Amino acid sequence: MALFVMEKTFPEPASDELVEKMRNAAEVCFEINGMQRKVTYASADRLRFVCVMDAPDLATARRALESAGMVYERLWPATSF
């Protein structure tokens, strides 16, 4: 497994309902693709989100996020130290 970071922004603050909907959709797609969400951070104004996940590779991470309907600005491999 490799570590990846996804960055997403919203034009207006994300509601609790939207965040829950995204989380539920991602969980299903992550499980199907053998991925695991490690942690998600939201900015105080809820306009920016960063999700750290484990995935077999970048293509799998992209496929899972797209299957979940996630539109993101960046997805990049990361190293934890």
Walk me through the structure.
The chain is of the alpha+beta class. It has a single domain (2-78), classed as 2-Layer Sandwich (Alpha-Beta Plaits), CATH 3.30.70.3090. Helices cover 33% and strands 35% of the residues. It has helices spanning 16-32, 58-67; strands at residues 2-9, 36-42, 48-55, 74-78. Strands 2-3-1-4 form a four-stranded antiparallel sheet. Helix 1 packs across helix 2. It is globular and about 35 Å long. The model has no long low-confidence stretch (mean pLDDT 94).
Q: What is the compact description of this entry?
A:
The protein has helices spanning 16-32, 58-67, and strands at 2-9, 36-42, 48-55, 74-78. With 81 residues, the chain is an alpha+beta fold. α1 (16-32) crosses α2.
